[in-house]
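Morning - magnesium ion inputs below, output right after.
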Amino acid sequence: MAIAYLGLGSNIGDREESLRQALKKISEVPGITVTKISSRYETKPYGKTDQPDFINMAVELETNLTPLDLLEVVLGIERELGRVRKETWGPRSIDIDVLLYEDLELDLTDLKVPHPEMHLRSFVIDPMSEIAPKREHPTLKMTIEEIKNKLDNEQ
Ligand code: X6L
Ligand code: MG
Ligand code: MG
């Protein structure tokens, strides 16, 4: 079984309900067991800043799905929950990103693991640090806790 981490975010519609539905759907997928769930964090939008605040969270999974199968699953759930892709970095009812998968480093067109900028984004690292502080980022060779301390010092 592989351990993987997902980052979830929502900033339009009933954000709490979208996250709840996403979690329920993830937990119902054969081959996935949700093992840890972070708190929810209300966060200011990064990148494209003229959009509503997000709620972000992170979850830990045990899975026998491959990274690409896991990606297909989360994209399917985004679609089921009514995500419409209009503009890059625009508002979304639900976003589910594959953050880490074991200590794998993958650089495919559709899937980059670790998520390329996760270590720069407190909306990813804060919830991750609750559920996986000792987990090492396979490229940076820093723990999530160390990455959080660095980010907190830079803010
Ligand atoms: C320069 C240019 C610096 C772009 C940063 C950062 C772009 C983050 C995209 C960036 C840049 C992103 C969320 C969000 C987005 C989210 C919060 C993205 C994709 N997703 N803000 N902004 N939570 N708080 O889930 O992450 S758009
Ligand atoms: Mg994202
Ligand atoms: Mg995404």
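Note: The beta strands are 2-10, 32-37, 41-43, 54-63, 95-101, 106-107, 112-113.

O.
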